[in-house]
Structure to design on (209 residues):
């Protein structure tokens, strides 16, 4: 079940928003700080986060960046009484769904939440697809991966044999195994699977800053 995660240092705001959303049928979890949220966060959380922009110690933008680095697939809606254009641009760059100014109307907030939850479902589906692709690639031997990369590039069996220094028949055997293990029905599907697996590898092992 999707959950709405509230992160705001103002207890009055947390309580009022939680009451509003619970009355609308949403499950709500509230946190008084960015660090409290991060300490509790789990990679399998689904839903969206409503985050205050200005908070002591760690503000909403810093929290959003850490969520991206940790691979938390929770779309973010920002609430603030101090929003400005640079902050909005930065938030949107990191994938924020909306940037609402306090006091926000119930209609505007619920509309943003619905958009965020729809995005959350899409991200979760993409995540499952990425993990499945990575798992399929992980079943391949080193030689089969070499063949897979060349097949995905559109190379012929003859070209692959020449590039790897193996026989045409050996290429055919490896190629058949690659297609069977990945369930790819064509070179195009193999290429798409490989790109999806590479995206998952970047999530699992993000580049160092």
């Amino acid at each position: 079940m999707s959950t709405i995660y509230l992160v705001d240092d103002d207890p009055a705001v947390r309580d009022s928003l939680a009451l509003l959303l619970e009355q609308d049928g949403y499950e709500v979890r509230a946190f008084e700080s960015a660090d409290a949220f991060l300490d509790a966060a789990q990679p399998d959380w689904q839903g969206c986060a409503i985050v205050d922009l200005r908070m002591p110690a760690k503000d909403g933008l810093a929290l959003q960046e850490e969520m991206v680095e940790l691979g938390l697939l929770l779309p973010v809606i920002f609430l603030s009484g101090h929003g400005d254009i640079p902050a909005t641009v930065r938030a949107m760059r990191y994938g924020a769904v909306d940037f609402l100014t306090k006091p926000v109307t119930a209609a505007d907030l619920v509309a943003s939440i619905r958009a965020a939850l729809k995005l959350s479902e899409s991200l979760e589906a993409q995540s499952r697809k990425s993990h499945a692709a990575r798992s399929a690639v992980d079943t391949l031997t080193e030689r089969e991966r070499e063949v897979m990369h060349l097949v995905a590039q559109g190379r012929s069996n003859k070209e692959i044999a020449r590039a790897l220094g193996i026989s045409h028949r050996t290429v055919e055997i490896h190629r058949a195994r690659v297609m069977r293990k990945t369930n790819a029905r064509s070179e195009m599907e193999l290429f798409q699977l490989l790109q999806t697996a590479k995206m998952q590898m970047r999530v699992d092992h993000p580049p160092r800053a």
Notes: The domain at 139-204 is CATH 1.10.10.10 (Arc Repressor Mutant, subunit A).
